[in-house]
């Protein structure tokens, strides 16, 4: 048995303190989402910027979604981000790519707040694969916002991103394997 001396106890306390500090740092990095891995010039929204009461029924306050959007079996990340300057916001997806690793793709941007406040305007959620009634593709000159039964349908094999303004317009971004990019359809105006 080793003798317990003041120097042994001090070394044990220092070692324990170093291990606790290391574990706290790892835990904080995981839970904060870390701005370090975000696209340059962008940041996570603050709690105040996502405090609208229409966001209360979402754990992420409709600012983050996780799903496999491109069907490669790897979970992707969708986020509403704010610019570091200027008050703008954008929908970004960190998409897995087989050869290059994950990459950030900006799907839409609102340059600055339309309402004159710093609050997030748009929100995101995940839509499960299935049959989706839509009004039109993003580039179409006319849209059919009639009843779902009269609308064209889109059969999606993978999860997609619902991009919406709470209690207002909504669109859907989905990954097209044929075009190797996200495409957008409008659901409501």
Automatic annotation (TrEMBL):
Tell me the segments the record calls region Disordered: 37-62
Locations of Basic and acidic residues compositional bias? 45-62
> Which N-terminal residues, if any, form the signal peptide?
1-29
Keywords, in A-Z order: Signal
Protein name stated in the entry: Uncharacterized protein
* Species in which this protein is naturally found: Lysobacter capsici AZ78
